[in-house]
Amino acid sequence: MKNYYLLFATGKDRSGIVSAVSEILFKKGANLEDSSMMRLGGEFGIFLIFTSTRKNFMEIVQPDFSKIRANFGLTLAMKKISKLEAEFIAPERDLYLVKVMGEDRPGIVFKICRFLFKHKFNILDLETHRTAWGKKPGYILFIEGEFQRSQNFKSTQRALSRFQAALGVKINIDPIPVGAI
Amino acid sequence: MAVRPIKIFPDGVLSSPTQPFTQFGPSLKSLVEDLFDTLYASPGVGLAAPQIGVLRRVSVVDVSKRPLKKGLESSNQGPLVLINPVMVRGEGRQVPREGCLSVPEFLANVTRFHWVQIKAQDVQGEWRVLEAMGFEALAFQHEIDHLEGKLFLDRVTNIKTDVFRRKMF
């Protein structure tokens, strides 16, 4: 029987981390299903889902993971998940992009996320960048998500200009065009 | 003639609307000279008036000042002054990684026309039709965006896949 696992690892970025983690999984007969890896600041992060048919896989793999924890200074954890949790669930509704650009100030992410939550917007992806080269630090925030009901988009747009003025940053919320052919 | 400081994101002047330029005289000559002086002191190939804090529809482009990056092609008309430029037509598609003197920390994949025809006034106020392809066409579109208060980041739809930190200019 195929079991699903989620592995999370983070540590100071250096070459060889991905190779070491994937080598262990390969040698123990696991299959990578889905993964997301990135560098954030000086840290490298791994978020991956894999499967294995071996019983007690978590115990089998622990000695190897202990070695790479020590070798790479990684924080590494894994847990068993269900097949349903492992599967990509396609968004059911139209996707929207919330784009925020302006001077950095405390609480931007919180205030925007609270505004979106109140307008029944589900966040599916969020990414930020801070800029430091201008006279003042800048902030770029992109959020992808969906409204629970299509009419929520219109009410959000109506509330947006006042919210934008209060926050002092430029915010655009637009449908993501899809041109499926 | 002066090299002026370049406005950097998130300076509000970069997203402000610009006014058409109507006073064709000494003030225009001085602005154009400042734009070229500032451009030639920078690593860029185009500069729009808002980038030096002037909210007027004036920009300069000179793709001849830098060797073309591998994989890019371009027309090359040397130094050009674009006053009150407007897009007339665009054809084809290119998605190079685009940078900007006002957003020095990032590059982004931005979809642009590969060939464009624009209309712009010259320093005497005469309307001219200009055509460009490749990198020069990209520069025209990028500069016209600046005059609309738009940065290349405004054209990006996915920060994760289309925006990249650059090490240095």
Can you walk through the features of this model?
The complex is a heterodimer of chains A (181) and B (169). In chain A, 33% of the residues lie in helices and 40% in strands. By secondary structure, chain A is of the alpha+beta class. Chain A has 2 domains: 3-86, Alpha-Beta Plaits, CATH 3.30.70.260; 96-175, Alpha-Beta Plaits (2-Layer Sandwich). Chain A has a 4-stranded antiparallel β-sheet. A 4-stranded antiparallel β-sheet of chain A has the order 6-7-5-8, with helices on one face. In chain A, a hairpin with a 6-residue loop joins strand 6 and strand 7 (138-147). Chain A is globular. The mean pLDDT of chain A is 92. By secondary structure, chain B is of the alpha+beta class. Chain B has one domain: Alpha-Beta Complex (Peptide Deformylase), CATH 3.90.45.10. Chain B has helices at residues 26-40, 134-147, 159-162, and strands spanning 46-48, 58-61, 80-91, 97-98, 106-109, 115-121, 127-133, 163-165. In chain B, the strands form 2 sheets. In chain B, strands 1-2-3-6-7 form a 5-stranded antiparallel β-sheet, sandwiched between helices. A 3-stranded antiparallel β-sheet of chain B has the order 4-5-8. Chain B starts with 25 loop residues before the first helix and ends with a strand. Chain A binds chain B through residues 97, 99, 101-104, 125, 127, 129, 131-140, 142, 144, 170, 172, 176, and chain B through 7-11, 15, 103-106, 151, 153-154, 156-160, 163, 165.
Overall pLDDT level of chain A: 92
How many individual domains of chain A? Answer: 2
Integer average pLDDT of chain B: 93
* Relative helix content of chain A: 25-40%
SSE class of chain B: alpha+beta
Shape of chain A: globular
* Helix/strand order of chain B: HEEEEEEEHHE
Major protein interface: A-B, 24 and 20 residues
**How does the overall form of chain B come out from the CA principal axes?**
globular
- Please indicate the count of domains of chain B: 1
Separation of the first and last Cα atoms of chain B = 24 Å
